[in-house]
Automatic annotation (TrEMBL):
Entry protein name: Uncharacterized protein
Ranges where the Glutathione S-transferase UstS-like C-terminal domain occurs: 112-212
InterPro entries xref list: Glutathione-S-Trfase_C_sf, Glutathione_S-Trfase_N, GST_UstS-like_C, Thioredoxin-like_sf
Family annotation (Gene3D superfamilies): 1.20.1050.10, Glutaredoxin (3.40.30.10)
Native source organism of the sequence: Calocera cornea HHB12733
Domain GST N-terminal as annotated: residue spans: 31-102
């Protein structure tokens, strides 16, 4: 079950409500941060329902979860009367309350480092290429809000941001990730799927929504001596996780 909202919802004590960013195509996830939470909920088999929130409604719906923040963000989950904001806080909450299967592997610190690397190095390397492509898949109100606020913040038109930038700027910062997979895979944390895999998978879903051909380029950027594409090989093992599952299923 899913719905749209301009105000926070009520939830029973045994229910998780997941506040996700609305897309122009109903019921489809696109935000890399929201993907992380959706993937974690699905991987753990947690029963939840989604409330889709358009950009201009975020503050009225979940602003109270981030006091003092002028522009609150998603994802947010609500478990009974408790609200948890920020994807990192959410996954830690899920690990505590729904410990199986575990996601913070091989350690909480290593996963947090990888998330920081993705948010501080990987994503910024191609943000000028991706951001101008975001409005095309937003809902109408979200599109207007996104363009207006981003252009005001950046001081230029979105189409100007992408000039001179290509997806190949992702290659150098992706190098350590490919090297780690090649030497210690098949997953980013070793032998088991971890939250690190969900972080990168969510980012690639965002890229795919913005420019499908760009993701295909990324998947083939690094190859083993035998010609096998390292990132593609990993992606083929985890991409099934990015299929949104029926929200009536789960073990909550």
């Amino acid at each position: 079950m899913s719905s749209s909202a301009s105000t926070a919802q009520s939830a029973s004590d045994d229910e998780i409500i997941f506040y996700d960013l609305k897309c122009g195509t109903p019921g489809e996830c696109w935000s890399p941060h929201c993907w992380k939470t959706r993937l974690a909920l699905q991987f753990k088999g947690v029963k939840f329902r989604t409330v889709w929130v358009s950009y201009p409604d975020i503050k009225s719906v979940v602003g109270h979860t981030q006091p003092g923040v002028d522009a609150p963000t998603l994802p947010v989950i609500q478990h009974g009367a408790l609200f948890i904001a920020d994807s990192w806080s959410i996954v830690q909450y899920l690990e505590e309350h729904f410990p199986a299967p575990p996601l913070l592997l091989p350690s909480r610190q290593s996963v947090h480092f990888f998330q920081s690397y993705c948010e501080g190095v990987l994503a910024p390397s191609v943000r000028p290429f991706i951001i101008p492509r975001v409005p095309k898949f937003l809902d109408e109100r979200g599109r207007e809000y996104f363009i207006r606020t981003r252009e005001a913040t950046l001081g230029m038109k979105l189409e100007e941001i992408a000039k001179g930038h290509t997806i190949y700027e992702f290659r150098t910062p992706l190098g350590p990730v490919a090297k780690n997979l090649n030497e210690y895979g098949p997953y980013l944390g070793g032998e088991q799927i971890s939250y690190m895999d969900l972080i990168l998978l969510g980012m690639l879903q965002w890229f795919d929504r913005a420019e499908h051909e760009a993701v295909q380029t990324i998947l083939g950027m690094y190859k083993k001596p035998d010609g096998t594409a390292v990132i593609q090989e990993w992606y083929d093992k985890v991409k099934y996780l990015a299929v949104s599952q029926p929200e009536s299923e789960g073990n909550l």
